[in-house]
Amino acid sequence: MGAPLIQRSRVRVFGVPAPRRLAVGVLAATALAASCLGSCAAATSGVPTPAPTVETAATGPAPAAPTSAEPGSIRPAAPAPAAGKIVVLDPGHNGGNAGSPNTINRQVPDGRGGTKPCNTTGTSTDAGYAEHAFTWDVAQRVKASLEQQSIRVVMTRSSDVGVGPCVDERGAAGARAGAAAVVSIHADGSAAGNRGFHVAYSSPPLNDAQRGPALDLSRDLRDALRDGNFAISDYIGKDGLSPRPDLAGLSLSTVPTALVECANMRNAQEAALVSSPAGRARYAAAITEGITRFLTR
Ligand SMILES: [Zn+2]
Q1: Ligand 1 centroid distance, CA of 261 (Å)
Q2: Measured in angstroms, how far is the CA atom of residue 213 from the centroid of ligand 1?
Q3: Has this prediction a pTM greater than 0.90?
Q4: How far away, in angstroms, is 264 Cα from ligand 1 center?
Q5: Which domains does the chain have, with CATH numbers?
């Protein structure tokens, strides 16, 4: 239930091909100068920057050299296209939920005129690997990958040992953070024979963000997971997408929001996948890709 963590974006130096760096160097330097507010030097000082890379961006054949950079500063290379945007990651449930039934059973607004419990314990694999641990781990990996692209990440919970936050707080987190997108990360607990991921979105929509952008975000996440060779759900939704009126976090959101059910933790094959660090890294890579696609639409 701690305050959301807001981490400042880091300057990305590597990973942008040289031609693009040359083309957008002027704009990037201007944007960074405007947004860094004096913290860029600290942000870049720990990055092992080869001098030629920086010099290329700083002295390339731009028609007009920017003059707004700090005097004497080394201008970093262009940020990724989505740099500076804010993403809220919402790892489902929390490690302390099971031990706090009174707290998580408290009724909160569901976004459609009713109420529902603050939160639930989530599911687990048959071997006992908990959904809250899975969602926390994957979210941390996604956070790190997004921050490498200078995307700012706000988490709805700051650890995997607390209680809550309630679903209505999670639903409000995107607007509070000024987020371009909110992605809730979960895993399902269905019959053992069922398998595959699906992405849920609010339906019927209750506002403009839910009407179009949330579906775009859901499709981008679905496509990225499919491209990452994850099986599309064979038991819920259609083509990996699931319209839902009953998920408060989705119904309450006024920014583009989607909820990824990564796997069925009760399916033996998918239990092995979510229980392995390599599997979680694959989920994180696909979710990161989906978010990036949406942010660069
Ligand atoms: Zn869940």
Answers
A1: 7
A2: 23
A3: no
A4: 10
A5: 17-79 (no CATH), 86-295 (3.40.630.40)
Question: CA–CA separation, 123 vs 68, rounded Å?
Answer: 52
Weakest-pLDDT range from 70-74, 106-110, 247-251 = 70-74
Cβ atoms 118, 166 nearer than 8 A: yes
Q: Does residue 113 sit in helix, strand or coil?
A: coil
For the ranges 52-66, 197-211, 237-251, the lowest mean pLDDT is seen at 52-66
Active site residue 261: yes
Task: Confirm if 79 and 32 have CB atoms less than 8 A apart.
Answer: yes
> What number of other Cβ atoms are within 10 A of residue 200's Cβ?
24
Exactly one of 70, 147, 169, 261 is catalytic; which is it? Answer: 261
Give the C-alpha separation, 40 to 70, whole Å.
10
**For ligand 1, a single-atom ion, which residues have Cβ within 5 Å?**
92, 122, 186
Query: 11 alpha carbon to ligand 1 midpoint, in Å?
Result: 33
Within 10 angstroms of residue 266's Cβ, the number of other Cβ atoms is: 20
113 alpha carbon to ligand 1 midpoint, in Å?
22
